[in-house]
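Notes from hallway chat w/ T.B., transcribed later so I don't forget. T.B. wanted the structure written out for a chain they're using in a teaching module, and asked if we could keep both sequence and C-alpha cells in one place. Agreed to drop them here.
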Amino acid sequence: MKSYLKVYIITFLITVTYSLSAQKSKIEEPVAPENIAYKWGNMALAATASDTEKFKPRPTITSRYLGLIFVSIFDAWSRYDENAIPVYLNDVERRPVEEHSLKNKEIAISYAAFGAMKEYYYSDTAMFEAFMLDLGFDPKNTSLDPSSPEGIGNLAAKAIIAARKNDGSNQYGEIEGSNGEPYFDYTNYSPVNSADENTDINRWQPKYFSDGNGGRYAPSCLTPYWQHVKPIALKSADQFRPGPPPMVGSEQLKKEVQEVIDLQANLTDEDKALVEFMRDGPQSVQQAGHWLKFAQDVSRRDKHTLDQDVKMYFLTEVTAMDAFIASWDSKMFYDYARPYALVHDYYQDQVIKAWGGPGQGITKMKGEEWRPYSPDIFLCPPFPSYTSGHSTISGACGEALRLFTGADYFGEEVELIPGSLTETDPKNFGNPVTIKFPTFTETADMAGMSRVMGGYHIQADNVAGLELGRNVAKETWKFYNKHLGKSNPSLEK
C-alpha cells in the first residue's frame, strides 16, 4: 500500500510541476508589441513606407509584397504547429511536437520574413540585416536544412519566391514585350480619353499633377494588368465582380455627382482629418499597410502572442492582396470615370461652391475648375474609379478582422490636425480633432465614405467596393481556416 502511495505522490508532484512550468512558460511568452511576429510587422511597415518614398505610391504592388511576406511567415510557422497547412512550403515535413517551442518559431519566422523582404523590398536589405542582428540571428545563415528552424525559414521564403515568380505581376519584367522592365504593362492598356480631351465621359480620363517643381505631368494608369495577377485565396479575380456603375444620363449618376460637390463644399474639420488619414499621407504604407496597422492595434489591445499575430497578419494581408486583385478586375473591366471628370462635365457652365486649393478655402468657381480635396502633387488616383480601392480593401480587411476576433468591436481612436496633409501653410490647419473607430465595420465604412467626401469617388464606387471587399473576406476566411487545418470552417465566429 505504501509503494502505491509513494508512486501516487511522485506522479502528483510531477504533474503539478509540469503544470506550473507550463503556466509559467505561457505567462512569460512575449505579447504584442514584444512578440517577434509583431516586430516583423513593424519592419514590414517601415519597408513599405520606404518603398513608397523611393518608387511613389504603388498600392497594388505593395499589397502583393505584404501578402507574400506574411504567407512566408505563416508557412515557416506552420511546421511548428500541430495542424497548420502551408500554402507554398509543401515539401518540408512538420517538426516533432517536442520541437514546437517559442524559440524555434521565432527563428523560423524571422528567416522567412528576412528572405521574403530581401526579395520584395530589396533596396532596404541593409535595414533587414541590421534587424536580424538586433534579434540575435545571423543574416548570413543560408541553411536549407529542413530539420532546423533556420533552414525552414529560408526554405519558406525560397518556396514563395519560386511559386509567385510568374503570377502575372510581372515583377521581373520577364513577360513577353516587357524588355526586362519590372511591372511593365504587358496588356498595352491605353485610355480612351487623354488628359487634354475627354471624348467618352463614362470612361476614365488621366489628369495633370504638379511635379513639385513648377511643371506638370499626367501619370499613366497604375498596373492596368493587375486583374491578371493570380489570387491566393480567390478562385479568380472576377469571382465577385459587381454589376456596372451608373452611366451618364441616369438619375442615379446625376444625384451622386451632386452629392460629391455638396459633401466637399461642407467639409468639417473632422471630415478633412478623416479624408487625410485614410488617404494615408507622407510615409504612406498604402491600404494594405494601413490595415496591417489596424491589425497591430488589435494585437496590442488583445495582448497577442506570436502564434496569434502570425495567424492574424496572414489572414489580413492575404485578404488585402486578393481584394486589390478583385478591385482591379472591376476597375479595368468597367474603365469608369472619376468625379474629377464627371463634375467638370456636369457643371462646366455653372458656378458652384467648392474647395479652391491650398490656402483658398471654400470659394465660388466654375464647375470645370472643381478639384478633389487633395494636394497638387497627388490630385487624384491615376487609374479608373469603379470600384473604390479604399472601400474594397477596407471592407475586406475590416470583415477579416471581425471574423478573426469574433466580434465587431475595435475601439481605436486617433488625434489629427485637419489640413496638415493637404494645405501648404500651417496657418490654414484646423484645431486638433479626435477620430473614433468604434467597430471594424464602421471603420471600413468611414474609410469608404472618406473617398466620396474627398472627391475621389462617387457613392456607387464606395457601396460596390465595400460589398466586393466583404465578399472577398468571406472567401479568404474559408481559405484561412483550411490552412489552420480546420475541415469545416464556419463563416461566423
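Follow-up for T.B.: The chain has a mean pLDDT of 92. Might be a good example for the class.
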